[in-house]
Queue: 2 jobs
Job 1
Amino acid sequence: MDYIFQTEKVTKSFGGLVAVNDVSIGVKEQSFTMLIGPNGSGKTTLLNVCTGVLRPDRGKVLFGGADITGWASHRVYEAGLVRSFQIPLPFLGLTVLDNVLGAMRNPGESPLRAPLHRSWLDHEQDNVDKALDILRRVGLARHWDQPSFALGAAQLKMLEVARGLSAGAKLIVLDEPIGGVDPASADEILSYVSGLKAQGLTFLVVEHRIDIAAPFADYVYAMDLGRIISQGPPGEVLNDPKVIEVYVGRDEAC
Ligand SMILES: Nc1ncnc2c1ncn2[C@@H]1O[C@H](COP(=O)(O)OP(=O)(O)O)[C@@H](O)[C@H]1O
Ligand SMILES: [Mg+2]
């Protein structure tokens, strides 16, 4: 299997409410896998179980061949499964470059290396080079010395992705990356995400603006009432009568 990430029959309840019910999903390496479903269908709970924020009642979570079920979220993050909000929030007063440097694991700061001052300086320069390279990959290179508060909504989202890359992410989990962004900028964000995919990254994305995001998705899972009701290529899932029913039949757009 070329899945980098899987859940196997994951269930999570809150009291009597089964928020995620026997859910198995697979995320292929270098894919953009999208999770859709109306409000309350269990998407956020599933992401929480995937990233170690919540422990499932039953089932397994697998990442890169390891069983990570029940791992604390910081351990999941260190393994390279990064959810944007796990990275310390961008410091809006800091420059774009400093924000990317701040999310980096800096071997120069380890107490063992600190006495090796020369080595530490080399690492600093290396880190700046790496950070600038990451900024190029997300289209923020020319903003490197701007304070982050000067960025637009779309650029702030890309700064989040840049910080994920800087933290060594292999799989980036995004909750509504194009929420509150105009359609042209949304397209730009998704184009950059596609480019990063070609460079080896994998994305698991919850997105409400299905019309804009679907063309970029490789595979879609649709949830309703805690269960997966449809899965497949976007064209198939969006035309699945079961999916249309939960969105249109209930006259609900989210
Ligand atoms: N911490 C919690 N305690 C109790 N109920 C919760 C909690 N988190 C989510 N739920 C419930 O679980 C269901 C799924 O919620 P959620 O995963 O947030 O759905 P979605 O992200 O698809 O909107 C909802 O009915 C919600 O009210
Ligand atoms: Mg949610």
Job 2
Amino acid sequence: MSQTDYTRQTHHEFLVAAEQALDDPKLQASLTNLGDTLAQRNREAWAAFPQSDAVRELARQIKDETLAHLDEYLEEFEVSVRRRGGEVHYAADGAEACTAITEILRSRGVKKVVKSKSMTTEEIHLNEALEAAEFEVVETDLGEFIVQLSKQRPSHLVAPALHLRMPEIHELLSGDAGETLPNTPEDMALYARRRLRADFATADAGITGGNFAIADTGSIVLISNEGNARLTVSLPRIHIAIVGIEKLIPKFADLPVFLKVLARAATGQKMSVYTSVINGPKLPDELEGPEEMHVVLLDNGRTRILEGPLRESLFCIRCGACLNACPIYRNIGGHAYGGVYSGPIGAIITPLYDGLVANHHLPHASSLCGACQAACPVKIAIPEMLIRLRDQLHAEPGELGWAEGKAYGLWARSMRVPWIYRLGTWLATRTVGRLSKNGWIRKLPGALHGWTKSRDFPAPASERFRDWWKREGEL
Ligand code: SF4
């Protein structure tokens, strides 16, 4: 397995997948519905939280400081977990993490595993590895359970089944039940609840991710709206948490800062419904909890990113707000991106984890409008990083076509030589402007036609600014 075994797409496959998504009215309705709702809630949550700017800035600073001393915090976390009776395992990549988890489960005679939602386990394809080792694996987040039944990938960081409509969900759940279920959301949820409760009661091990890992207490923090993470941790006799090393925060006292921004960014809630702080296995005088707890700390390319100019991408707390805000994601959905992580942050971290040239279409899947950064709880400079990735790509041999290279060269020259720039703008108003209708051009000629395939091009103004300025007498 590579560092991250993504379902890679070529540029052409990406374009085809994007066009298919645009032509799918059901998907378009789902994207508009949920995207509008969540993006609106995000904006309202920031507006109703007077200190939001300062708290988001503080969250950024904590992340920055943690990454600057990550080695020390990892050591502190390991000591804290062991002090509370837990075990820590380090995994350099996805294959090592899957092997470590499989060995823990095998050596303890585990047959059935329940899981709560975790993008990190998606990243390393843990379910496939566990199923290949003949463990029964059941996702217990309702959206993830539905996605598992559909044998697809999640299409959103916090709403994994966003791409599925109610009739499809009804068919999947009825197929699992072996009978046609009543066709109401309540009845379908009730079926899933009963089915999953039985799985919780009979599972030998529970696997979770971790929203945060706290160095000074050795705690794993799990945030959910369904309570399934809490059952995953407390009912089976073994708990395994797999956590990317960037999820560390130094102190328990830092946690409220992130709790304040995470739910607001993700769903517009002041707080998520369940916040569970897991502090090791059950103690001798406790009635509930696992007998064993293991934390698998995953690198999988993160230390490489840490040393580079795009380390800020490791600030991400996987809230999904940038996806809901992004005009590209909201039109093509998550699956078109090809990787486990989609949307603006996926367009950065997939190339970083899996190779830039192999994923060269992703940094271009953005209008650079900045809506992602405005929505982000830790204000990650996503557009700036996408531009940096594009720049790196252009330095790769063969990435910039001959015509594109010449066009950029000409553009750069015209910006440096005033008379060429003047001539260019004069020609644009007299030639390109003629193709326009009501200020828009429906079809660009030649190699530029791709631009107008699914949108219009704004026509240049009929008069150049410099001519207007001269005529108005420079005020
Ligand atoms: S980049 Fe920011 S907005 Fe996007 S998922 Fe990460 S934390 Fe959320």
